[in-house]
Design brief:
Layout: E1 2-11, E2 21-27, E3 47-49, H1 51-61, E4 66-70, H2 79-89, E5 93-98, E6 111-117, E7 142-147, H3 150-162, E8 170-174, H4 181-189, E9 195-197, H5 201-205
Parallel strand pairs: 2-4, 4-5, 5-6, 6-7, 7-8, 8-9
Antiparallel strand pairs: 1-2, 1-3
The structure holds iron/sulfur cluster (SF4).
Iron/sulfur cluster binds at residues 30, 32-34, 37, 39, 71-73, 99.
Length: 213
């Protein structure tokens, strides 16, 4: 059985798939406590479901074949790997959003991984598991930095330099309500790097505190 927070159908608000209709499976529980966390409600499970029940639920919501597994932190539950496998068997395109602190070694290549690197402003900047860099496909997966301020921006660039990471799969996203998207856009334009500015689209479509979107 898997501990769940919520399952819903909405517009994908983040990642290279932003703007597309997408099913979301939000798993409960997280091993981190980021200062800006906007899903604190997911720390505790609201329900438990078997993998079969989860797949039945998403099928009842939509025929959409794009599904995101998110949290909380989905990889703290061992069954998540089985869920990914089963969704693949059913023909779903799978996005996996993870906080970067847990090994990706057992995650199949067919899952599109969106991997956070927690910045100092999060209070969790020592959490990133460096060996995960080898499990991120620079051509498809995404490396995401969520930024609170200029210090986070400079720190993120220094990490990329340290890792010699020049791939075009780096995403910088401002914490909603804390860092101005315009300011972040200007900082990115000062750099000669293929960094993608990402806004949380769902927070502009709906009220930022709306759940299940
Ligand atoms: S990793 Fe995600 S869910 Fe966990 S505390 Fe940080 S922002 Fe919240």
């Amino acid at each position: 059985m898997i501990d769940l927070s919520e399952i819903f159908f909405s517009i994908q608000g983040e990642s290279a798939f932003s703007g597309l209709p997408c099913l979301f499976i939000r798993l409960a529980g997280c091993n981190l406590r980021c200062s800006y966390c906007d899903t604190t409600y997911s720390y505790q499970a609201t329900q438990k479901k078997s993998i079969t029940e989860i797949i039945d639920t998403i099928k009842s919501l939509s025929d959409c074949k794009l599904v995101e597994i998110t949290g909380g932190e989905p990889l703290i539950q061992k069954e998540t790997i089985v869920l990914i496998h089963e969704l693949h068997q059913y023909g779903y395109q799978i996005l996996l959003e993870t906080n970067g602190s847990i090994s990706l070694d057992d995650i199949s290549d067919y899952a599109h991984k969106i991997v956070d690197v927690k910045c100092p402003g999060s209070g969790e900047s020592t959490s990133f598991l460096l060996s995960n860099l080898e499990r991120i496909n620079p051509a498809t997966d995404e490396l995401k930095f969520v930024l609170c301020d200029r210090h986070d921006f400079d720190w993120s660039l220094s990490q990329l330099d340290k890792w010699n990471w020049n791939a075009a799969n780096v995403v910088f996203s401002p914490v909603y309500g804390l860092l101005s998207p315009q300011l972040l856009a200007e900082w990115i334009l000062e750099q000669n790097r293929p960094i993608r500015l990402q806004l949380q689209l769902h927070k502009y479509i709906w009220h930022p505190s709306t759940r299940g979107v």
